[in-house]
Amino acid sequence: MNVSVLLLGVLFSSIGLGYFIYGKKQQHTMALICGIGLMIYPYFVENIALLLCTGIVLMLVPKFIKI
After folding, report:
1. DSSP, residue by residue, 15-44
2. Within 13 A of 34's CA, how many CA atoms are on the CB side?
3. Membrane-crossing residues (predicted)?
4. I want to staple 62 with a disulfide (CB 3.0 to 4.6 A). Which of 1, 30, 39, 50 is the partner?
C-alpha cells in the first residue's frame, strides 16, 4: 500500500460521498450511481494511474450522461 494510493482513495471517496448525497436529494440517478462507484472502486485499484483515470472518468460521467 502506497501513501499516494491511500490519499487518492480518500479524496475520490469523499467526492463520491458528495455525489451520493447530491444524487439522493435531487433524485439524480447518474450522480447517485457514480457516487457509489467513486466510494467503492479505490478499494480494488492499487495502480496510481488507473486510480486517477477511473476517478476522473467517474466524476465526469454525470455531466455528460443524463438518466
Report:
1. HHHHHHHHHHHHT-HHHHHHHHHHHHGGGT
2. 24
3. 28-61
4. 30
What cell was used for 31?
450522480
The three three-digit cell numbers of residue 21, written as one number: 448525497
The C-alpha atoms of residue 16 and residue 31 are separated, in whole angstroms, by 9
C-alpha distances in Å from residue 28, one per residue of 10, 15, 44, 60: 23, 16, 26, 14
DSSP conformation class of 47: -
Q: Cell numbers 491511500 correspond to what residue?
A: 6
CA atoms within 13 A on the CB side of 65: 13
What is the identity of the amino acid at 5?
A: V
| 26-53: b (≥16 Cβ within 10 Å) or e | eebebbbbbbbbbbebbeebeeeeebee
C-alpha of 56 from chain center: 8
